[in-house]
Structure formats: C-alpha cells, structure tokens
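Continued from yesterday's entry.
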Amino acid sequence: MQFNQEKADGSLYDYLIEHIDTMRGTWSSDSSSGNASDDYTNQKLEEMKKVFAQELVHVFREEETQFYEHFEEKISAIVEENKEMWQPMLTIQEEFTYYRNAILEQIRLFVHQYEESIPVDHVLGWQRKALQAFDYAGRAFMKEAIYHMNEQMQLKEAMILELSSPIILIQKKTGLLPLIGHIDEQRGQVIVEHTLKQCTESELTRLYIDLSGVRDITTFVAQRIMQLATALKLVGVKTTLCGMRPEMAQTAVQLGISFKDIDIVSELTHALQANYAL
C-alpha cells in the first residue's frame, strides 16, 4: 500500500491535539518554573505554556508561511500580556527544551503505533518542523522580552532622573532645588524641564538652587543653569544659586563661566536666613 502523506500528517496533528494535556504534564513535571518565588509567577508561566503548547502543534497542519505569521503574532501577544515578567521569560529557552522533548517523544509514540509504515524521511521531516518551530519561538520570545525589558529600563531611568531633581517647598511660593552628583546632558535636560514644570505647578516665585552636592562645574552645567534661570525668569520665578564650593568657583573663573543676572550666595543657610528675614 502506498504511503498517504496527507493522511499521516492529519493523523499526527489529531494525535498531538489529543495528547496536549499529556505533553503539558510532562513539560511541567520536568520544568524548573515551579521553583518561582511566588504563586502568581507560577500561574502566569503555566498560562503561557498552555497557549504556547496549543499554538505550536499547528505547524503540523497549517501551511508554513501562514503558520509562522500567526505564530509570531501569538508570541508577541503573549509577551505583551506578560511583559512585567520579562525575567522569567528570559529563561524560557530552558522551558522550550522541556516541551521540545515532550513533543518529540509523542511523535515517536505516534510513529510506533501508527497502522502503516511511515518512511524515515517523513518522520525526520516532522522532527525538523518541530525543531524549527522551537528555534523560531526561542528567538522571537527573546527578542520581544528584551525589547520590553529595555522599554521598562528606560521608563525607570526616566523616573530616576525626575526624582533626582526634586523641588522642596520651604515656604509658600519658595522652593529649594538640591542638585547632587554628576550632571550629564540627559540629566541636565530633565532638570530644566522638570524644574520648570514643578515651579509652574507649585506657583513658585523664588527658587534656591543648591550646588553643594554637585561634583564639578563645567561649561555644560553652567549653560544648563543659565538656561534654567532664564526660563524661570520668564515665568516669574527669581533664582538664587548657593553652595558653590571654592574649587568650583575657581574652575568657573578658569573656564570663563559667568553667572550674570543670577543672585549668588555662598551657603544655603545664609540664603534661607535672608529669605525668612524678608
């Protein structure tokens, strides 16, 4: 009897669908995901496994181009829905190994019990389809997960930058901006934008900028401070610089940096005392 390739493909697909729960059970028993630190993470991992297990078997039924288009969309959706779990997802390659072994074992069992003899080349073709799908899924998962990881890191960095330039309300309509550490281009821009926003929202009329925590003064830092003071003046906020250390002042002179049109006092305490005396 001539081997019926279409019939065998359909039978394998039906067999794998029928044994989905068996494969998932083998996957979960072999997997290390159950060692996650909390029940929520374990639950989400099991949900992802269920969707993935159901989707991958379609590689044996659908046309290849159609399958991978749908498969990519499904992987993107899984990652998007669980993007807060990017760390567990970065270990998904190990999880794929467990499921790959489970599905290859089911293919072996199917071939063993199938009523007709299946050519070796066709069995190897099934195995190759499965392995290609797993390789594709691994790359797609990693790509999507890393993208969302970078996205989250950028959001956290932006939040940290905003928190690094807080305005402290010391009196009605009077605020203090303590600057600490190194000020690079990105942070300098955030300081200008965030300070303007805070001063406007708080309806401040005076702002003290404390430089005692700034590591060094550069032309760039001076330009940003001047930019900030000019912008604040336009919205009705008077700026006073304080806490400039002697070595910082000396560097400013050497660099030809001028803080014209900005009030400067040596120490924050002097500035505050003068303010409260008003």
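--- second protein ---
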Amino acid sequence: MSCSETTSYQTMMVDGVRIFYREAGQANPSTIVLLHGFPSSSRQFDVLIPLLAPYYHVVAPDYPGFGHSDSPPPSSYEYTFDHLSESVDRFLEMKGIDRCTFYLHDYGGPVGFRVILARPQRVQAIVVQNANAYEEGLGAKWAAIREYWRDPESHPEVVDAFLSRESTEQRHTLGTSYRERYNPDAWTDESAHLSKPGQREIQGLLLYDYRTNVASYPVWQAWLRKQQPSALVIWGKNDPSFIAAGADAYKRDLPGGEFHLLDAGHFALDEKVDEVSLLMLSFLDRHVK
C-alpha cells in the first residue's frame, strides 16, 4: 500500500491489459476504491483524493478503454460491463485489497455493483454519488437511448449525440448554479479522448450494453435490501441524466442509509468537493474506522 498523501500514478498489467491508477494515503486497512463515470477517468477524483488521503488509503483505477488504461480493440477485449467489472475485480485482487469502501459514480455504479456482488465480503461500506440503480432515476434523455437499444443500427445518431463535444461539456455544466467552479480542462480532455481512433466503437458497444444494467437493477436492489450495507448516498439533484428521484429510490432498500441531495449536477465533485469530502469523512469515521 501507499503510505504517502501525495498521489502516485501507476500502472499494472491485468490479464494482458495495462490498467492505470491513482493511489495515495495512509498505509492502513481502510481503503477507499473510487470508481469513475463516463466519459471520465480516475482524473475526476483529482480534487477528492487529497482530502481523503490523510486518513485513508485511496485507489482509483481507469477502466479498460478509459483514461490512461489500455484501449484494446473490441476484437481482443469484450467491451461489456461484465468484462469491465471482471478487470476491476482482478485489479483489486492483484492489489491485495480484500476489504474496502466503494465510491460509485455513474458507470462506477454498474461496474461497482457487479464487483460487490462477485465478492460481497470485500465491502466495508458504499458511497453512491449519482450512480443509478432504479428506473425512477433515468432522466428524459434515456428515451432516445432505449430506441438505440431496440435497434442500434437504425439509430447511429444516438451514439453521435452521446459522444459529442456538446454533450460531454453539458454532462458537467447542465443544472449547475456554480459554472465558475468547473474546470474546462475536464470536458476538453474527455472530448479529446473520445475523438481517438476506435473510441466510437468502444463507447457505442458500452452504451448498447448499458441495457444489461437496467435489467440488473432488481438484482442490485435485492442485495441492498438483504445485506443493508453501511451506505452514504450523495446526489447532485440537478443532474439531467440520473435525476434526483434515483436518490430517493435508494431509501426503499436502505432505510438506515444516509442521504444528501446537493445543489449540484452530475459531476458533483466539480462544484461541491469540500461538502462531499466532509460528508464522506464523517460517515466513514462512524461506519468504517
């Protein structure tokens, strides 16, 4: 484990794929695993990691096809959420992380829930930040995506819109009350990544496979309902993709959970990192330490 509060940037070969990850924090048994969203990478946690690292060991990997991890062609790596989760699970195994708190955001939800259900004994607690697991949380934009799921070849425009620079910027800024807190490098870098050769096919495959996540919602809900993990749900209430009703829905299965709706958008850390970190540290002090 790392024993420095300064973030280090490392790679590990996981089943033939080079996985990039950020790591920092105390050398203690309390690890926080940060799982990023689309179309970002572990870079989205640059502002959060230094606030957690004085107290916890923190690890944030990039999935295959994202950030600085390898992006093998679909002919050699199957781009499904099942496979991304297998890669993350194997990464954690190779890192020797057998107990941790999971921070789930956006794509980190379907990746994380699969990793959790594969090895539930690993879970100390979960932090859910705009990581949807309920039909109620799907905003209006998902109507077009459902059409793509039904007939992907007839709706290439859905993928074009999903990967466009405008959509990439709006994932950060729509609904915000604090535009000045957003670093434009975030969507500039994300757009540059999405423009790389092969990315349209990779992300189109994952968007199509996202339908399996919606189909898995009842399974994830049943696990939450049965296991009652210590849970902190933090939600940017202005998120147009995963709307605030998705946060409220967790209350049905986690009556003992802690819930906070923030005046923020999808990437709540961009504008509310101080508030999120304080909520996390308070929660973890009570439920993990």
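The chain has a mean pLDDT of 95. The first strand starts at residue 8 and ends at 14. Will compare against the first tomorrow.
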